[in-house]
Amino acid sequence: MDTIASLFSFITTPVSWVIVQFHSVYGKIFGPDTGWAWGLSIVSLVILIRICLIPLFVKQIKATRAMQTLQPEMKKIQERYKNDKQRQSEEMMKLYKESGTNPLSSCLPILAQSPFFFALYHVLNGIATGTTIGVINESLLASARNAHIFGAPLAAKFTDGSAKVEALGASLTDVRVVTAIMIVLMSASQFYTQRQLMTKNVDTTVKTPFMQQQKMLMYVFPVMFAVFGINFPVGVLVYWLTTNVWTMGQQMYVIRNNPTPGSKAQAAYLERLTNHVTHHGKTRRRSEKTIIKAIVAKGRDRNEFERKFINALTKAGLVAQADGNVVKGEAQADVQTEDGVTSTSAAAKRQQPKRQTKAQRQSGAAKAAGDSTSDSSDSDDASAVADTTTSLEKSDEPQDAKPAAQQAPKGGSNGRSRAQSGQRKGGPQRPKSPSKK
User: Are 275 and 309 in contact (CB under 8 A)?
Assistant: First the structure.
Protein backbone atom coordinates (compact mmCIF):
# COMPACT_ATOMS: atom_id res chain seq x y z
CA MET A 1 0.00 0.00 0.00
CA ASP A 2 2.88 2.36 0.74
CA THR A 3 4.24 1.78 -2.77
CA ILE A 4 0.86 2.57 -4.35
CA ALA A 5 0.46 5.66 -2.21
CA SER A 6 3.88 6.91 -3.22
CA LEU A 7 2.77 6.81 -6.87
CA PHE A 8 0.18 9.48 -6.04
CA SER A 9 2.59 11.62 -4.02
CA PHE A 10 2.15 14.44 -6.56
CA ILE A 11 -1.28 15.14 -5.06
CA THR A 12 -0.17 14.73 -1.46
CA THR A 13 0.66 18.40 -0.98
CA PRO A 14 -2.76 19.69 -2.21
CA VAL A 15 -4.60 17.14 -0.06
CA SER A 16 -2.56 18.01 3.04
CA TRP A 17 -3.12 21.73 2.40
CA VAL A 18 -6.92 21.24 2.22
CA ILE A 19 -6.91 19.25 5.46
CA VAL A 20 -4.87 21.93 7.23
CA GLN A 21 -7.25 24.68 6.07
CA PHE A 22 -10.29 22.82 7.37
CA HIS A 23 -8.42 22.02 10.61
CA SER A 24 -7.72 25.69 11.20
CA VAL A 25 -11.47 26.36 11.04
CA TYR A 26 -12.66 23.45 13.17
CA GLY A 27 -9.75 23.87 15.59
CA LYS A 28 -11.17 27.22 16.68
CA ILE A 29 -14.46 25.52 17.53
CA PHE A 30 -13.49 22.16 19.05
CA GLY A 31 -9.83 22.72 19.87
CA PRO A 32 -6.80 22.09 17.62
CA ASP A 33 -5.78 18.77 19.21
CA THR A 34 -9.22 17.12 19.35
CA GLY A 35 -10.41 14.26 17.19
CA TRP A 36 -13.45 16.31 16.16
CA ALA A 37 -11.27 18.96 14.53
CA TRP A 38 -9.21 16.45 12.54
CA GLY A 39 -12.09 14.07 11.88
CA LEU A 40 -14.38 16.80 10.54
CA SER A 41 -11.49 18.05 8.41
CA ILE A 42 -11.35 14.65 6.72
CA VAL A 43 -15.15 14.57 6.30
CA SER A 44 -15.06 18.05 4.76
CA LEU A 45 -12.34 16.89 2.38
CA VAL A 46 -14.65 14.07 1.23
CA ILE A 47 -17.55 16.45 0.66
CA LEU A 48 -15.33 18.83 -1.30
CA ILE A 49 -14.01 16.03 -3.50
CA ARG A 50 -17.49 14.63 -4.17
CA ILE A 51 -18.83 18.07 -5.08
CA CYS A 52 -16.00 18.41 -7.59
CA LEU A 53 -16.93 14.98 -8.98
CA ILE A 54 -20.59 15.91 -9.60
CA PRO A 55 -19.97 16.68 -13.32
CA LEU A 56 -18.38 13.26 -13.64
CA PHE A 57 -21.35 11.73 -11.85
CA VAL A 58 -23.72 13.47 -14.30
CA LYS A 59 -21.69 12.03 -17.15
CA GLN A 60 -21.99 8.63 -15.54
CA ILE A 61 -25.79 9.01 -15.39
CA LYS A 62 -25.92 9.98 -19.07
CA ALA A 63 -23.78 6.98 -20.00
CA THR A 64 -26.10 4.75 -17.99
CA ARG A 65 -29.13 6.17 -19.80
CA ALA A 66 -27.37 5.55 -23.12
CA MET A 67 -26.90 1.94 -22.08
CA GLN A 68 -30.63 1.73 -21.37
CA THR A 69 -31.51 2.86 -24.90
CA LEU A 70 -29.54 -0.12 -26.21
CA GLN A 71 -31.56 -2.63 -24.23
CA PRO A 72 -33.94 -3.53 -27.12
CA GLU A 73 -30.91 -4.25 -29.31
CA MET A 74 -29.35 -6.25 -26.49
CA LYS A 75 -32.49 -8.32 -26.20
CA LYS A 76 -32.41 -9.08 -29.92
CA ILE A 77 -28.79 -10.17 -29.70
CA GLN A 78 -29.60 -12.41 -26.75
CA GLU A 79 -32.44 -14.07 -28.62
CA ARG A 80 -30.42 -14.47 -31.81
CA TYR A 81 -27.32 -15.97 -30.17
CA LYS A 82 -28.85 -17.58 -27.10
CA ASN A 83 -26.99 -20.81 -27.80
CA ASP A 84 -23.63 -19.17 -28.53
CA LYS A 85 -22.39 -17.20 -25.52
CA GLN A 86 -19.11 -16.22 -27.11
CA ARG A 87 -20.77 -14.78 -30.22
CA GLN A 88 -23.29 -13.05 -27.97
CA SER A 89 -20.50 -11.31 -26.03
CA GLU A 90 -18.77 -10.31 -29.27
CA GLU A 91 -21.94 -8.76 -30.65
CA MET A 92 -22.52 -6.93 -27.37
CA MET A 93 -19.04 -5.41 -27.48
CA LYS A 94 -19.59 -4.45 -31.11
CA LEU A 95 -22.85 -2.72 -30.17
CA TYR A 96 -21.12 -0.80 -27.37
CA LYS A 97 -18.43 0.35 -29.78
CA GLU A 98 -20.87 1.47 -32.49
CA SER A 99 -23.06 3.41 -30.04
CA GLY A 100 -20.10 4.97 -28.21
CA THR A 101 -21.17 3.69 -24.77
CA ASN A 102 -19.01 2.12 -22.10
CA PRO A 103 -20.46 -0.49 -19.73
CA LEU A 104 -17.73 0.31 -17.18
CA SER A 105 -18.72 3.97 -16.90
CA SER A 106 -20.18 3.35 -13.43
CA CYS A 107 -16.62 2.86 -12.15
CA LEU A 108 -15.53 6.37 -13.20
CA PRO A 109 -16.26 8.08 -9.84
CA ILE A 110 -14.29 5.39 -7.98
CA LEU A 111 -11.36 5.72 -10.36
CA ALA A 112 -11.43 9.51 -10.18
CA GLN A 113 -11.27 9.65 -6.39
CA SER A 114 -8.61 6.94 -6.09
CA PRO A 115 -5.69 9.46 -6.26
CA PHE A 116 -7.21 11.43 -3.36
CA PHE A 117 -7.70 8.24 -1.39
CA PHE A 118 -4.09 7.11 -1.77
CA ALA A 119 -2.79 10.64 -1.15
CA LEU A 120 -4.77 10.80 2.10
CA TYR A 121 -3.46 7.36 3.07
CA HIS A 122 0.07 8.61 2.42
CA VAL A 123 -0.52 11.66 4.65
CA LEU A 124 -2.03 9.66 7.51
CA ASN A 125 0.64 7.00 7.27
CA GLY A 126 3.21 9.77 7.62
CA ILE A 127 1.40 10.97 10.74
CA ALA A 128 1.52 7.42 12.14
CA THR A 129 5.25 7.11 11.49
CA GLY A 130 6.00 10.66 12.67
CA THR A 131 7.03 12.00 9.23
CA THR A 132 6.09 15.45 7.98
CA ILE A 133 4.37 15.34 4.60
CA GLY A 134 3.23 18.20 2.39
CA VAL A 135 2.31 21.29 4.38
CA ILE A 136 1.98 19.39 7.66
CA ASN A 137 4.85 20.67 9.82
CA GLU A 138 6.10 19.46 13.19
CA SER A 139 3.44 21.23 15.26
CA LEU A 140 0.58 19.98 13.10
CA LEU A 141 2.10 16.50 13.14
CA ALA A 142 2.13 16.45 16.95
CA SER A 143 -1.46 17.74 17.05
CA ALA A 144 -2.67 15.05 14.64
CA ARG A 145 -0.90 12.28 16.58
CA ASN A 146 -2.65 13.36 19.79
CA ALA A 147 -6.11 13.44 18.12
CA HIS A 148 -8.44 10.55 19.03
CA ILE A 149 -11.73 9.53 17.45
CA PHE A 150 -13.85 7.66 20.01
CA GLY A 151 -10.67 6.69 21.84
CA ALA A 152 -8.73 5.56 18.73
CA PRO A 153 -5.82 7.66 17.41
CA LEU A 154 -6.19 9.08 13.95
CA ALA A 155 -3.17 7.19 12.63
CA ALA A 156 -3.79 3.83 14.41
CA LYS A 157 -4.61 0.62 12.51
CA PHE A 158 -6.37 -2.60 13.42
CA THR A 159 -3.14 -4.58 12.90
CA ASP A 160 -0.98 -2.34 15.06
CA GLY A 161 0.63 -3.89 18.12
CA SER A 162 0.04 -2.83 21.67
CA ALA A 163 3.40 -1.02 21.90
CA LYS A 164 2.68 1.19 18.89
CA VAL A 165 -0.84 1.93 20.07
CA GLU A 166 0.37 2.83 23.55
CA ALA A 167 2.91 5.16 21.98
CA LEU A 168 -0.02 7.02 20.43
CA GLY A 169 -1.69 7.30 23.83
CA ALA A 170 -4.49 4.72 23.40
CA SER A 171 -5.35 1.13 24.30
CA LEU A 172 -5.31 -1.76 21.84
CA THR A 173 -8.89 -2.73 22.72
CA ASP A 174 -10.26 0.72 21.93
CA VAL A 175 -8.43 0.81 18.61
CA ARG A 176 -9.64 -2.61 17.48
CA VAL A 177 -13.23 -2.05 18.56
CA VAL A 178 -13.44 1.32 16.78
CA THR A 179 -11.73 0.09 13.62
CA ALA A 180 -13.82 -3.11 13.53
CA ILE A 181 -17.07 -1.13 13.78
CA MET A 182 -15.95 1.28 11.07
CA ILE A 183 -14.88 -1.58 8.77
CA VAL A 184 -18.26 -3.31 9.21
CA LEU A 185 -20.13 -0.06 8.51
CA MET A 186 -17.95 0.64 5.48
CA SER A 187 -18.51 -2.84 4.00
CA ALA A 188 -22.24 -2.80 4.82
CA SER A 189 -22.78 0.59 3.18
CA GLN A 190 -20.91 -0.57 0.08
CA PHE A 191 -22.97 -3.77 -0.11
CA TYR A 192 -26.27 -1.90 0.34
CA THR A 193 -25.32 0.60 -2.35
CA GLN A 194 -24.59 -2.15 -4.88
CA ARG A 195 -27.63 -4.19 -3.88
CA GLN A 196 -29.90 -1.16 -4.19
CA LEU A 197 -28.57 -0.62 -7.69
CA MET A 198 -29.08 -4.25 -8.74
CA THR A 199 -32.49 -4.90 -7.18
CA LYS A 200 -34.29 -1.59 -7.72
CA ASN A 201 -32.69 0.29 -10.60
CA VAL A 202 -32.04 -2.42 -13.20
CA ASP A 203 -34.32 -3.50 -16.03
CA THR A 204 -34.74 -7.18 -15.23
CA THR A 205 -36.15 -7.97 -18.69
CA VAL A 206 -32.69 -7.62 -20.23
CA LYS A 207 -29.77 -9.65 -18.93
CA THR A 208 -26.35 -8.54 -20.09
CA PRO A 209 -22.78 -9.47 -19.13
CA PHE A 210 -22.55 -6.05 -17.52
CA MET A 211 -25.31 -6.98 -15.09
CA GLN A 212 -23.47 -10.15 -14.17
CA GLN A 213 -20.35 -8.09 -13.49
CA GLN A 214 -22.30 -5.71 -11.27
CA LYS A 215 -23.80 -8.63 -9.37
CA MET A 216 -20.33 -10.05 -8.81
CA LEU A 217 -18.99 -6.68 -7.64
CA MET A 218 -21.87 -6.46 -5.17
CA TYR A 219 -20.24 -9.29 -3.19
CA VAL A 220 -16.58 -8.69 -4.08
CA PHE A 221 -16.30 -5.03 -3.02
CA PRO A 222 -17.47 -5.50 0.60
CA VAL A 223 -15.03 -8.37 1.02
CA MET A 224 -12.22 -6.25 -0.40
CA PHE A 225 -13.05 -3.41 1.99
CA ALA A 226 -13.10 -5.82 4.92
CA VAL A 227 -9.72 -7.31 3.97
CA PHE A 228 -7.94 -4.05 3.20
CA GLY A 229 -9.73 -2.14 5.96
CA ILE A 230 -7.70 -3.78 8.70
CA ASN A 231 -4.62 -2.12 7.19
CA PHE A 232 -6.22 1.34 6.90
CA PRO A 233 -5.54 4.03 9.52
CA VAL A 234 -8.57 5.34 11.37
CA GLY A 235 -8.45 8.58 9.35
CA VAL A 236 -8.66 6.65 6.08
CA LEU A 237 -11.58 4.62 7.45
CA VAL A 238 -13.34 7.91 8.24
CA TYR A 239 -12.68 9.08 4.70
CA TRP A 240 -13.92 5.89 3.05
CA LEU A 241 -16.97 5.50 5.31
CA THR A 242 -18.00 9.09 4.54
CA THR A 243 -17.54 8.42 0.81
CA ASN A 244 -19.73 5.31 0.95
CA VAL A 245 -22.47 7.12 2.86
CA TRP A 246 -22.38 10.00 0.35
CA THR A 247 -22.57 7.55 -2.57
CA MET A 248 -25.46 5.68 -0.96
CA GLY A 249 -27.47 8.86 -0.39
CA GLN A 250 -26.71 10.22 -3.84
CA GLN A 251 -27.78 6.97 -5.46
CA MET A 252 -30.98 6.81 -3.40
CA TYR A 253 -31.87 10.28 -4.66
CA VAL A 254 -31.21 9.33 -8.28
CA ILE A 255 -33.14 6.05 -8.05
CA ARG A 256 -36.11 7.78 -6.45
CA ASN A 257 -36.34 10.71 -8.87
CA ASN A 258 -34.77 9.41 -12.10
CA PRO A 259 -35.15 5.62 -12.16
CA THR A 260 -34.12 3.24 -14.90
CA PRO A 261 -36.98 2.39 -17.32
CA GLY A 262 -38.36 -1.07 -16.69
CA SER A 263 -37.03 -1.30 -13.13
CA LYS A 264 -38.88 -1.65 -9.85
CA ALA A 265 -37.84 1.88 -8.99
CA GLN A 266 -39.66 3.17 -12.09
CA ALA A 267 -42.81 1.29 -11.09
CA ALA A 268 -42.74 2.93 -7.65
CA TYR A 269 -41.96 6.35 -9.14
CA LEU A 270 -44.76 6.21 -11.70
CA GLU A 271 -47.19 5.09 -9.00
CA ARG A 272 -46.31 8.15 -6.91
CA LEU A 273 -46.49 10.37 -10.00
CA THR A 274 -49.90 8.94 -10.91
CA ASN A 275 -51.30 9.69 -7.44
CA HIS A 276 -50.02 13.25 -7.55
CA VAL A 277 -51.10 14.06 -11.11
CA THR A 278 -54.59 12.59 -10.71
CA HIS A 279 -55.02 14.53 -7.46
CA HIS A 280 -53.71 17.92 -8.61
CA GLY A 281 -54.25 17.61 -12.36
CA LYS A 282 -50.75 18.83 -13.23
CA THR A 283 -47.06 18.08 -12.82
CA ARG A 284 -44.81 19.69 -10.20
CA ARG A 285 -41.21 19.72 -11.39
CA ARG A 286 -39.27 19.86 -14.62
CA SER A 287 -37.91 16.36 -14.02
CA GLU A 288 -41.47 14.98 -14.02
CA LYS A 289 -42.20 16.70 -17.32
CA THR A 290 -39.00 15.24 -18.77
CA ILE A 291 -40.00 11.71 -17.79
CA ILE A 292 -43.58 12.11 -19.09
CA LYS A 293 -42.22 13.57 -22.33
CA ALA A 294 -39.97 10.53 -22.78
CA ILE A 295 -42.88 8.16 -22.08
CA VAL A 296 -45.12 9.87 -24.64
CA ALA A 297 -42.35 9.83 -27.25
CA LYS A 298 -41.92 6.05 -26.91
CA GLY A 299 -45.37 5.31 -28.30
CA ARG A 300 -45.85 1.59 -28.71
CA ASP A 301 -42.40 0.87 -27.28
CA ARG A 302 -43.54 1.65 -23.72
CA ASN A 303 -42.92 -0.95 -21.08
CA GLU A 304 -45.53 -2.40 -18.75
CA PHE A 305 -45.21 0.29 -16.07
CA GLU A 306 -45.37 3.14 -18.58
CA ARG A 307 -48.50 1.73 -20.23
CA LYS A 308 -50.10 1.38 -16.82
CA PHE A 309 -49.29 5.02 -16.11
CA ILE A 310 -50.85 6.23 -19.37
CA ASN A 311 -53.97 4.11 -18.76
CA ALA A 312 -54.33 5.53 -15.25
CA LEU A 313 -54.23 9.06 -16.65
CA THR A 314 -56.85 8.15 -19.25
CA LYS A 315 -59.19 6.74 -16.63
CA ALA A 316 -58.82 9.96 -14.65
CA GLY A 317 -59.74 12.04 -17.70
CA LEU A 318 -56.20 13.35 -18.24
CA VAL A 319 -53.99 13.31 -21.31
CA ALA A 320 -50.17 13.37 -21.33
CA GLN A 321 -48.88 15.89 -23.87
CA ALA A 322 -45.74 15.65 -26.01
CA ASP A 323 -44.14 18.53 -24.07
CA GLY A 324 -44.49 16.67 -20.76
CA ASN A 325 -47.52 18.54 -19.44
CA VAL A 326 -50.75 16.85 -18.37
CA VAL A 327 -54.09 18.40 -19.32
CA LYS A 328 -57.72 17.44 -19.04
CA GLY A 329 -58.93 15.44 -21.99
CA GLU A 330 -62.32 14.62 -23.48
CA ALA A 331 -62.72 11.53 -21.35
CA GLN A 332 -64.82 13.34 -18.75
CA ALA A 333 -66.80 15.54 -21.14
CA ASP A 334 -70.52 15.64 -20.48
CA VAL A 335 -72.55 14.38 -23.39
CA GLN A 336 -76.24 15.09 -23.58
CA THR A 337 -78.29 12.26 -25.06
CA GLU A 338 -81.39 12.55 -27.22
CA ASP A 339 -83.59 11.97 -24.17
CA GLY A 340 -82.19 15.10 -22.56
CA VAL A 341 -80.26 13.13 -19.92
CA THR A 342 -76.68 14.22 -19.31
CA SER A 343 -74.27 11.32 -19.20
CA THR A 344 -70.49 11.03 -19.00
CA SER A 345 -68.94 9.20 -21.90
CA ALA A 346 -65.60 7.45 -21.68
CA ALA A 347 -64.53 9.09 -24.92
CA ALA A 348 -66.90 11.80 -26.08
CA LYS A 349 -66.78 12.05 -29.84
CA ARG A 350 -67.53 15.11 -31.92
CA GLN A 351 -71.10 15.11 -33.19
CA GLN A 352 -71.05 15.37 -36.99
CA PRO A 353 -74.11 15.98 -39.24
CA LYS A 354 -75.66 12.92 -40.82
CA ARG A 355 -74.67 12.55 -44.44
CA GLN A 356 -77.57 12.88 -46.90
CA THR A 357 -78.04 11.04 -50.15
CA LYS A 358 -78.04 12.84 -53.46
CA ALA A 359 -81.83 12.51 -53.78
CA GLN A 360 -82.32 14.06 -50.34
CA ARG A 361 -80.04 16.98 -51.18
CA GLN A 362 -81.89 17.61 -54.45
CA SER A 363 -85.28 17.35 -52.75
CA GLY A 364 -84.13 19.86 -50.15
CA ALA A 365 -83.05 22.27 -52.87
CA ALA A 366 -86.34 21.82 -54.68
CA LYS A 367 -88.32 22.38 -51.52
CA ALA A 368 -86.36 25.55 -50.77
CA ALA A 369 -87.03 26.83 -54.25
CA GLY A 370 -90.70 26.03 -53.89
CA ASP A 371 -90.97 27.87 -50.61
CA SER A 372 -89.31 30.99 -52.01
CA THR A 373 -91.78 31.17 -54.88
CA SER A 374 -94.91 29.99 -53.06
CA ASP A 375 -96.45 33.47 -52.94
CA SER A 376 -96.31 33.95 -56.72
CA SER A 377 -97.07 30.41 -57.85
CA ASP A 378 -100.53 28.87 -58.02
CA SER A 379 -101.76 25.80 -56.17
CA ASP A 380 -100.88 23.46 -59.06
CA ASP A 381 -97.17 24.44 -58.87
CA ALA A 382 -97.15 23.92 -55.10
CA SER A 383 -98.73 20.51 -55.57
CA ALA A 384 -96.11 19.63 -58.20
CA VAL A 385 -93.23 20.58 -55.91
CA ALA A 386 -94.71 18.58 -53.06
CA ASP A 387 -95.20 15.54 -55.32
CA THR A 388 -91.62 15.88 -56.55
CA THR A 389 -90.28 15.97 -52.97
CA THR A 390 -92.30 12.94 -51.95
CA SER A 391 -91.25 10.98 -54.99
CA LEU A 392 -87.53 11.73 -54.48
CA GLU A 393 -87.64 10.85 -50.80
CA LYS A 394 -89.26 7.47 -51.53
CA SER A 395 -86.81 6.68 -54.27
CA ASP A 396 -84.13 4.17 -53.26
CA GLU A 397 -81.71 5.06 -56.05
CA PRO A 398 -80.34 8.61 -56.37
CA GLN A 399 -81.69 10.32 -59.50
CA ASP A 400 -80.93 13.63 -61.09
CA ALA A 401 -83.81 16.04 -60.92
CA LYS A 402 -84.35 18.83 -63.37
CA PRO A 403 -84.21 22.42 -62.20
CA ALA A 404 -87.35 23.95 -60.82
CA ALA A 405 -87.77 26.07 -63.94
CA GLN A 406 -88.05 22.93 -66.06
CA GLN A 407 -90.83 21.28 -64.04
CA ALA A 408 -93.82 19.68 -65.81
CA PRO A 409 -96.51 22.04 -67.12
CA LYS A 410 -99.35 23.01 -64.93
CA GLY A 411 -102.28 20.68 -64.80
CA GLY A 412 -100.26 17.62 -65.69
CA SER A 413 -101.72 14.35 -64.56
CA ASN A 414 -98.76 13.51 -62.33
CA GLY A 415 -97.51 17.04 -61.71
CA ARG A 416 -93.87 16.10 -62.42
CA SER A 417 -91.52 15.46 -65.29
CA ARG A 418 -90.21 12.04 -66.13
CA ALA A 419 -86.74 11.49 -67.48
CA GLN A 420 -86.65 9.89 -70.86
CA SER A 421 -84.87 6.59 -70.96
CA GLY A 422 -81.49 6.67 -72.64
CA GLN A 423 -80.99 10.38 -72.08
CA ARG A 424 -77.87 11.73 -70.49
CA LYS A 425 -77.98 13.72 -67.31
CA GLY A 426 -77.43 17.30 -68.22
CA GLY A 427 -75.97 18.63 -71.46
CA PRO A 428 -76.89 17.66 -75.02
CA GLN A 429 -78.49 14.28 -75.54
CA ARG A 430 -76.84 11.53 -77.52
CA PRO A 431 -78.87 10.61 -80.62
CA LYS A 432 -80.18 7.10 -80.75
CA SER A 433 -78.33 4.83 -83.05
CA PRO A 434 -80.45 3.20 -85.77
CA SER A 435 -81.38 -0.33 -85.04
CA LYS A 436 -79.78 -2.98 -87.09
CA LYS A 437 -82.07 -4.90 -89.25
Answer: no
